[in-house]
Write a structure and sequence with these properties.
Structural class: mainly alpha
Largest sheet: none
Mean pLDDT: 87
Number of strands: 0
Oligomer: single chain
Low-confidence stretches: none
């Protein structure tokens, strides 16, 4: 029973591969259309960031109001430090050999 399933799966795989091989390549992308799509995506990303900031602010105000209503102290926000950009790698000294290089004979 399992040998039959393997043979059928192999046959279906070969059939699918042959069908995919016969598909024509996609049409070339028009630069004007690509630029318009990129601009639209950029605008959508900016709107998403603005919406997220707005709703984060609403959540914080709601949390603080609920804490005040319950009579609990409102915690101060914890500052989140920004990681500095990584330093560029130092270039090896002139004439120095890498540590992993085998010795010359």
């Amino acid at each position: 029973m399992t040998l039959k399933k393997i043979i059928v799966a192999a046959g279906l795989t070969l059939f699918a591969a042959s069908v995919l091989a016969k598909l024509p390549p996609p049409p070339p992308v028009d630069p004007a259309v690509a630029a318009a799509k990129a601009e639209k995506d950029k605008a959508a990303a900016e709107k998403t960031k603005a919406d997220q900031a707005k709703y984060e602010g609403k959540a914080v105000t709601n949390f603080q109001a609920n804490m005040k209503k319950a009579g609990k102290p409102v915690p101060k926000p914890t500052p989140i430090p920004v990681a500095p950009p990584p330093a560029p790698a130092a270039a090896p000294a002139k004439g120095a050999t890498p540590a992993a290089a085998p010795p010359k004979k």
